[in-house]
Automatic annotation (TrEMBL):
Lineage: Bacteria, Pseudomonadati, Pseudomonadota, Gammaproteobacteria, Moraxellales
Gene3D superfamilies cross-referenced by the UniProt entry: NAD(P)-binding Rossmann-like Domain
Main location: membrane
Compartments, record wording: Membrane
Keyword hit for Ligase: no
Entry GO terms, CC: membrane
Domain NAD-dependent epimerase/dehydratase: 6-157
Protein name in the entry: Uncharacterized protein YbjT (DUF2867 family)
Keyword Heme: no
Keywords: Membrane
Amino acid sequence: MQRKAILIGATGLVGQHLVKQLSELYDTLIVIARRPPRYINASMRFYQVNDFDNLAEIFASVGADSKTDAFSCLGTTKKQAGSDEAFRKIDHDYNVNFAKLCQDKGVENFFLLSSMNADIDSRFLYNRVKAETEQSIMALGFKQLVILRPSLLLGKHKGRPLESFGQKAFKLISPLVSESLSLHPISAKRVASAMAMSAHEVYQRNKYRSEPAIQTTDIIENKQMLAMTKVKK
């Protein structure tokens, strides 16, 4: 069986690592982005979209189906977006619209990058919108929805000075901090690995299933991602 994956957010901190990992895991990887990802191989199909408001036009020619797994690493910050409304549009509306378009194509498995602090009652816009996005995609009823909630992401954050400062501070104390702590920062590459590993696990779980799959939502918290991707010394 030819396995396919479709991804948005491929040029972000986690997405750029996920592109390579999915390319090795799937026969075909469909990438939809404003610019080409850093990693490209022969099995990749790249669709350039200048405005995610027009995503439906791209989907008209995208060959996604029930054998395709969908991944979203799309996200931003209020500062990068420019306003509360623009941030919500990118983090919530674009993600939910992508999920709906995938579902219309028959996609059954959806993998969403969220945040450890996702909370519908949070006083912080970022956390509330992350939670709203989770809930909106849950409501679509994918057969398998996997939500990953990382803590502070380690990597080069362009235009995110607070997160860059947090990383520098963490490097000073990291030898004293155990990965067993749920708030332990995690590298973007390890989050991508956890995402790819989760997809492979879902595939293996359903490979020989004889009865119809039931709707399932799995939430993978930061601590679990750290354990999944721990490198033995």
